[in-house]
Protein 1
Amino acid sequence: MGRDITISALDGSGPFSAYLAEPASGTGPGIVVIQEIFGVNADVRSKCDAWAAKGYVALAPDLFWRQEPGVQLTDQTEAEWAKAFELYKGFDVDKGVEDLTATIAALRHQPNCTGKVGTVGYCLGGLLAYLLATRSNADANVGYYGVGIDGKLNESHAIAKPLMLHIAQEDKFVDKDAQAAIHAELGKNHHVTLHDYAGQEHAFSRAGGQHYDKASADLANQRTEAFFAGHLR
C-alpha cells in the first residue's frame, strides 16, 4: 500500500500530488508510472504497487492537476469516458512533460531510490513516455499504445536512452499510417525497440477493460520488466 506525496512544479504554479509505492526490500531503482486519461486511479495505483513488489520505487503523478486535482475515473461508464475525454482535450502536453520532468527529479531524490529512473506510460502516458525519451534525462522509457507519437517524430533525433514501444496493430486511435510512420522513423534508431501486437486493440493491457487480452498483456509486461531490469539495475 502506497501513499500520496507532493511535488513542486517547475514553473512555480503550485505543488501537485503523486502516488508513491515503495519496495519492502528497502532501496531500488525508480519507475514513474504515467496515467491514461482516467487520472491516477485504482489501476494506476495497482501498477505502482506491482512495481514496488518487484523491488522498484514507483511514483505516479497527477497530470490533470492543472485542470482538476485528484481525478480518479474508471472506464466503466459513459459519463466517466466523457469526463476523461474532456480532460484529455484540455491537457497541455508540454506542461505534462514539464511536470513529469519534475517527477523524475523528485523520484531520484527519494532516499530509497538508487538514482536510476525509468518511465512507463499508457495511452496518453505512452505519448508522454516517448516525449520523455526526447526531452528528459530518464534512463529508460516504455510506452504502451501511445496516441499521437506520429505527430512528434520530428523529435526522434534527440533520443539518446533506451526506448521501448508496444504497438497495438488494430488500435483505433493509432491508424495503420501512423504505425507505419512510427516504424519508418524509429525503426532505424538503435536506442528504440518496437513490439507489434497483431489483432490487438487500444488498451489491450488494461485489466478489466473492454479490449483486455491477457496473453498479449502478459507478453508486453514481461518485455517491459526485462527491459527495466537490463537498463535500471
Protein 2
Amino acid sequence: MDADLAGQRLDNFLMRQLKGVPKTHVYRIIRSGEVRINKGRAAADTRVEAGDVVRLPPVRTSQRAADKALAMEVLRDGASSSVGATAPEREFLFLLEDEQLLAVNKPAGVAVHGGSGVAFGVIEQLRMARPDEKFLELVHRLDRETSGILLVARKRMALKNLQEQFRERGTDKVYLALVRGQWPDKLKVLDKPLHKYLLPDGERRVRVVDAAHPDAMRAVSLVKVQRRLVLPEVGEASLLEVTIKTGRTHQIRVHLASEGHPILGDDKYGDFELNKRLSKADMLSRMFLHAWRLSFTHPATGKRVKLEAALPPELLQWVDHEQTL
C-alpha cells in the first residue's frame, strides 16, 4: 500500500478505494472476515500501514452509487457533472484554520462523511470546495444529529498525531446535552460498558451491558449539571456538561438514557412521545447534543489549543427563555 495512505482506518481506506460500493457492503465484508491484511483478519478500526497487503473478495458496484461517485470526482475536478449530481453549496464556520488542521463548527443534520444513503458529508463538501488541497481527512467523528466542533487534518502528520491523542485520551471533549427531568447531583461518573448491535433492518444501535459481556466496551462519561430548568411541554429538565473519557458510538446518548434522562430530540434512545410533541409544536426538530469544548495539543507547535463552539440559535433559545429552578 502507498505510504500516503498509511494510518487510515480500514473502513475509511476501503470506502475511498471502492468508490461506488455501498458502505453497508464494505462493513459486511469486514465483519465476515473476507477482508484480509497481510493474510490475517482485520477489524473496521484496524490501521493500515505502508507495505500492508490488503486482500478483498469480489465486490459489485451498484449503478446508483457508481454514478454518485463519478459525479463527485467530476465536481472535484471543476467540470460540470453529466450524471445529474450537484455539489452542495454550504459554508462552514471555522473555529481554527492553519496549515495543519481545520476546526469546523458542524451544523446538526449534516453527516461527517457520505454513505448509508447520504450523498455528501462535511469531508466531501470540503474537498469539493478546496480542489487544490492534497490532503483533507477527518480526525474523528460526530453523529449526524450532533452539532459542534469537528477536526479535519490537512497534513498526514497532523492526522496521525491528533488521532493518537484521541486514542490515548490526550484530548478533553465536553458536550452540552439537555435532558428530561432533574439529573441527580450525586451522579457524576457513568462507568457503564456498551455493546453495539444491529436491528433487523440493519440499523446500528448501542446498549448498556454487564462488564462480563463478551463484547462489552468500557465507556466512561463525566456529568456536571450546568442549569436546572422548567420548559414548556417538557417540565423539569437539566442542561448537562458531559465530558467523555472514551469515544464509543452513541456513548453520551445511551449513558444518559440508561439513567432515565434521555436527551431531548434523540430519535434513537429518547422519549419518542415527547419528541413528537416538541416537533409537532415546531419547538425542537433536532437532538439537543452539542460538541461544545475541545482541547488538544497542537501537532506542530506543541501548545495546548482550547476551542469552544457556542450553542446554535435553535438550541440557545431553550436555555435563554426558561424558568430556572
